[in-house]
Write a structure and sequence with these properties.
By secondary structure, this protein is α/β, with parallel strands linked by helices. About 50% of the residues lie in helices and about 15% in strands.
């Protein structure tokens, strides 16, 4: 579908007038954005309807991707790009005399995710549509999402993120597709016509209402669907919800992402959310499948359900429940279908992050589901005991020690289990999930995460995109491995100078933002050193902070020394109940307050911690980054995707050999990445022999003594409590994430960064080499492998080869 500038102008002015009774000159930026969103949605509507009709008519196999998080970012420019009308619309807007940038900025970031997990899910939805793969997302329509982060006296404070206060132009409410989800009460089995059926008593019914959002494929006229569910009181049950408290109990089910699970009530709410999503989504899938008028025993031929981390693992018993209780299949028929339909991605190495629910909680909240889990577990043990013996069988049990292990259920109830980087998958097989790998070796496989260059390059860095287009053409936009052709320009001084100018322009743009929002002046000629990700101790923002303190002390000892200027940029949220992470945030903000206001330091060192980091801020920061900090303790980060986004935009990576850093190293070569620190094997050796002594390292290292003493001697003001806690965690309690062990190597590799940056030609040669090798980290390739090897789903675009 083509669109001319003049045609767009007339249509757009008519839409604004029709929606608001105003001319475009009178409308506010939000009204202009909302009208443009409505126009784009209408423009894509024909493709959306036709895609749905074609899928049903051809009875194609479809993927249903279940995730507690989706973090799409602003959708206006992405949708315009994918429809192929971004340039036409921008030109038309500017011809009218309007500011396209201010219209784009009027869109709220959807608060539907937290970090990498949600962003990955959204990248995948983009790639699934762009590759022509029939697929839908299934999630929750959070009213407030995670939270808005504010810093008060350096402390993180959480406030509600009311992102839906002005509505969401991209969604369509489908009340005719609503389903009932049942909680609580009691369930017993009764015989009826020769079969056992469940009888429910005293249950609470909540209405799950879907809101659909178009997932527009990249210039291929295909539009998939993202379905987000919201909880409402069933109209016929309003009489039972007369009090505000009773109504709020229903509303809170879909109000916030990851309710505070430090309390029993918070954990119950999180469990309810997970079952609400799974039940509503599975009911919707079975209802659609019935429209195909095919036998229910064939459902695996037309349906693939993917469980993104353990949160949606209740899809498995809910699927069984519907097939045996409502469709009346036998247990064996339902179980075989379940295993063929379900696949599971594990996103963590740490056992404590794999969800476990107390038996009594499941019995109280979802009693029928618990009965089914109990039966799955009983049959698993009965079948495996004679084959594998007691030790291995009970290590893989779903129910043990009073809890239900959701990761175990996800593995047993699916046909595929994948990690998200080769190192992560190897650790799962050899360490974390070793008993399962011994039992089910063919289930395990690797699918290294990817990112969509459409958002993280074409939209976030338009100048770099234009540079690439001029050098190698535009084929890379659909075949990202074509970026490798850029290697031919690594020794071209003019190309390297262009690259440097693009980076400087992006750095100036971020510096302007910092000046306007934080009233801090930063020098774009300094190294912009970026660490942007969720705040967690294993990601080791603390190691970065200790390096900054070390630099600060060097400057104070010798203010006249020639030091390479550097701006350290952080973006991170800590979970509300994660006190230690919040103390690290306070420490970094206190360091920033000290460093940024010390006249001895000047422009040699600045620290910027942006508030409320999210997708839109990432799109501003990533193109400006010179250095990408990927410094998690080796063996802890499953994959990482900020490493890929920053690499794609030409940042050089400072990294441990963790997650996908290993694969980045393999593509770019050790000479084009800054490696340091323990390997995963060395970490596990320390675990096994128990010989790690952080106190010994501290006491034998004069630099470390000076740095750590600043936490407790008043050098860094206003961190009396936080400084002592952090100091003790590193020295008294043996430094769980080996920060002190890796400290000296980290300092040394940062010296290498300083030296290289002073040779701009050598720096930008490595920068261009990183960009040229970023193509294999496209989410398109990741999704091709999922579709071909796990979901067994064909693309609807004949030119796409899933191989």
């Amino acid at each position: 579908m083509t669109l001319q500038v003049e045609e767009f102008r007339k249509d757009y002015e008519r839409v604004v007038k029709g929606m608001y009774g105003l001319s475009v000159e009178e409308a506010s930026p939000f009204q202009l954005y909302n009208a443009l969103g409505a126009y784009v949605k209408s423009f894509a509507g024909e493709h959306w309807s036709r895609t749905k009709t074609e899928y049903e008519k051809k009875q194609v196999k479809q993927l249903y991707y279940f995730s507690m998080e989706f973090l799409p970012g602003r959708m206006l420019k992405s949708n315009l790009l994918n429809l192929g009308i971004l340039d036409v619309v921008r030109e038309g807007i500017e011809d009218i005399g309007l500011d396209f940038h201010s219209i784009v900025q009027a869109e709220e970031d959807p608060a539907l995710g937290n970090g990498g997990l949600g962003r990955l899910a959204s990248c995948f939805m983009d790639s699934i549509a762009s590759l022509g793969i029939p697929g839908s997302g299934s999630g929750i329509r959070y009213r407030y999402g995670l939270f808005q982060q504010r810093f008060i006296d350096g402390h993180q404070v959480e406030v509600p993120d009311n992102w839906l206060r002005n509505g969401n132009v991209w969604e369509v409410r489908k009340e005719n597709k609503a389903v009932n989800v049942r909680f609580g009460g009691q369930v017993y089995m009764a015989e009826q016509e020769g079969r056992l059926i469940p009888v429910y008593e005293n249950t609470r019914t909540i209405l799950a209402v879907p809101y659909d959002t178009a997932m527009i494929g990249y210039q291929n006229e295909l539009v998939n669907n993202l379905r987000l569910w919201t909880a409402e009181i069933p109209p016929e049950d309003y009489v039972h919800y007369s009090s505000i408290a009773a109504q709020q109990e229903v509303n809170q089910l879909t109000e916030v992402l990851y309710p505070d699970d430090s309390s029993y009530e918070g954990r119950i709410l999180r469990l309810r959310q997970e079952y609400f999503l799974c039940s509503a989504g599975i009911q919707s899938i079975v209802r659609y499948y019935k429209k195909l008028q095919l036998p229910l025993t064939m459902i695996a031929e037309k349906v693939a359900i993917h469980i993104n981390d353990t949160h949606p693992a209740l899809c498995i018993p809910e699927f069984i429940r519907i097939l045996i209780d409502e469709v009346e299949l036998t247990w064996d028929q339902a179980w075989e279908s379940c295993k063929k339909v379900m696949s599971y991605t594990n996103h963590t190495i740490m056992q404590e992050a794999m969800e476990k629910w107390p038996i009594e909680m499941l019995k109280a909240e979802v009693p029928r589901i618990y009965q089914i889990i109990e039966e799955i577990n009983r049959r698993h043990i009965e079948k495996k005991l004679p084959l594998y013996g007691e030790e291995l069988t009970y290590q893989t049990a779903i129910i043990s020690e009073g809890v239900v292990n959701m990761a175990h259920m996800a593995i047993i109830g699916s046909h595929s289990v994948n990690g998200v980087a080769q190192l992560h998958t190897n650790i799962l097989k050899n360490e974390v999930l070793k008993p399962f790998y011994e039992m089910y070796p063919t289930k395990f496989n690797n699918k290294t995460n990817g990112i969509t260059q459409r958002r993280w390059l074409q939209l976030a860095n338009e100048d770099l995109t234009q540079f690439i287009d001029e050098k190698i053409g535009t084929e890379w936009k659909k075949k990202p491995t074509e970026l490798t052709v850029l290697k031919g320009y690594v020794n071209d001084p003019d190309a390297l100078k262009q690259l440097e100018e693009i980076k400087l322009k992006n750095k100036r743009r971020f510096a302007q933002y910092v000046k306007e929002k934080m009233n801090i002046t930063i020098d774009p000629n300094a190294i912009f050193d970026v660490q942007i990700k969720r705040l967690h101790a294993y990601k080791r923002q603390l190691l970065n902070a200790l390096h900054i303190i070390s630099r600060y002390l060097e400057i104070k000892e010798n203010p006249d020394a020639a030091i390479q200027p550097r701006v350290f940029i952080f973006g991170a949220k800590a979970a509300p109940s994660y006190l230690y992470a919040k103390q690290i945030i306070k420490l970094i903000n206190a360091i920033a307050e000290l460093v940024n206001n010390d006249p001895d330091v000047g422009d040699k060192l600045k620290v910027i911690f942006v508030e409320n980091y999210g997708v839109t801020l990432a799109e501003l920061i990533i193109p400006a980054a010179d250095v990408s900090e990927q410094i998690s303790l080796a063996s802890k980060e499953a994959s990482g995707t900020s490493n890929m986004k920053l690499m794609t935009n030409g940042a050089l990576t400072v990294a441990t050999l963790d997650g996908a850093n290993v694969e980045i190293r393999n593509y770019v070569g050790e000479e084009n990445i800054f490696l340091f620190g323990l390997t995963s094997q060395e970490v596990y050796e320390y675990y096994e022999n128990g010989t790690y002594s952080s106190r010994q390292i501290f006491e034998s290292n004069p630099r470390l003594i000076k740095v750590l003493n600043t936490l407790i001697d008043g050098t860094i003001p206003d961190i009396q409590e936080e400084g002592r806690v952090i100091f003790d965690s590193l020295v008294q309690y043996n430094d769980e994430y080996f920060v002190l062990k890796d400290f000296e190597e980290y300092i040394a590799v940062q010296r290498e960064v300083d030296l290289l940056y002073q040779d701009k030609q050598a720096w930008y040669q490595k920068s261009l080499w990183n960009i040229a090798n970023s193509g294999p980290f496209s989410a398109d390739f990741t999704i091709m492998r999922y579709a071909d090897e796990i979901w067994k789903i064909d693309s609807q675009m004949p030119e796409i080869e899933l191989s």
